[in-house]
Amino acid sequence: MNLVFLGPFGLRPKATMSARAVPLAEALARRGHAVTIVVPPYDYPADSGREEYIGSVHILNVSIPPKIPGLWYFVVTWRLLRLTLDLRPDVVHAFKPKGFAGLAAAVLHLLGLLGLSRARVVVDTDDWEGAGGWNDVPGYNRAMRLFFPLQEKWVLRQANAVTVASRSLAEMVAAIRRTQDNVFYLPNGIRARPGSPGLPPVGTASGHGRHPTVLLYTRFFEYKVARALDVLERVAASVPEVRLLVVGKGLFGEETEMARLAKEMGLTSKVVQTGWVGAADLSACFAAADVAIYPFDDTLINRTKCSVKLLELLGAGLPVVADRVGQNTEYIEDGKSGMLVAPGDVEAMASAVGELLQNRETARAMGCCARKRVAAEFNWEKWSVEAERAYERAMAREPRSRVVLAWLPVSLWMGAIFFLSSQSALPHLPEPFLQTFTAKLIHLSEYAVLALLLFRAFRVASFVSGRLRLALIFSILVSALYAASDEFHQSFTPNRHPAVVDVLIDLCGASLALGVTLWSQRPIHRRIGRQSG
Questions:
Q1: How far apart are the C-alpha atoms of 388 and 173, rounded to whole Å?
Q2: How large a percentage of the chain has pLDDT more than 90?
């Protein structure tokens, strides 16, 4: 298959595309597919217009124009679409149903309806963006807060297929689409990192000696910062030498709040903050830890997200104590490959951490089990097969362009009838009889054409499913209703008057046209019947 992945932003500095789309693309390329990733790097201008390869995956960064208010969004979306259409893909996989990827997916869907694009649209969602989700996180203006939830739901509903990163998202998307069909569970997987540690020894990578070390690898926003320090304080009561190694940078400067709270609680000497750490140094931080904690408040964002950081911790062979929320329960087998505690239960998390710190063999065995389980169950080679299944199902769906192209003439013809009924003065013939005859003949012809167009449209409707008589009944019924509404409409038009006779003439025209159509098709069916007999 020829696949195009659409990103909502660039590969840098955010890790969403590089942690999810890129490894999936690499796995699909190894399975023989041609994969191109097209992204708008507005958040990293240095990549504007850049072309590169990651393995055999082709990366195209669209050129980012000057930021002209209003016009800028349309230009970026147009460039994203132009590059995508030039590649002539079989399937376009849009990562996130909002932002530029969502806009491009929506346009591609409309082009498909009009028969102008053959690409099927698959949408990926790895977070809940609407109400109660990221839409409520500071950073969006009022227009974005209004638009993103509408965009998310419409794009998810219209896509040929949807891939979701968590079980909770699968349920929410199925509710939006009103069906579980073509909703595919596609969780995040791990990638082997060169130099990744094996079983984590107690090390000195961060210069804090051989103290028992608890790792907090985090973005901070998933929980209240004070809770991590509360856990540390309780662990220190039983393991006085313990240290908390904090790796990561907050979305809103939460690391500064942590330093302040640590000072207020008298824990400054027990907290080591590294800030953001690059991939090359991350393995050393993992190797310096004995246990990792992964606090996760029970919120809609956390229930629907699929944490790459948790996967990295488990894949590195660290025993992890995490809150029993959302996808955490998919990644961790409680008591085997990690420990799960009730959300927000500080005492339970501290007790589990203390137990693992004091029983190194148990911690080591748990970390080993975590690494093996993640490598076996959550690797991109395995989940790329599920992605393939999503693409195949998307391509197997009947193109909606047939339906749209069938109903478009109906809409146009109804519009023409409505326009004529809105005219207060129509051309008159000098002879009254000819005038009346011509007017009635026009009525007859208008609804004969309308009935034929309706019959054609209903025959491709899914609820009719090729049943000829049902298509005829619906065509007559809609023609009659529109004829009645047209006469009612004329009662509001100056110099025009409704007439029941005109409705009857309209019905005669519709019935005559459908009768001739049915009669003309009967011999064909009889010949087919004789041949099959």
A1: 19
A2: 60
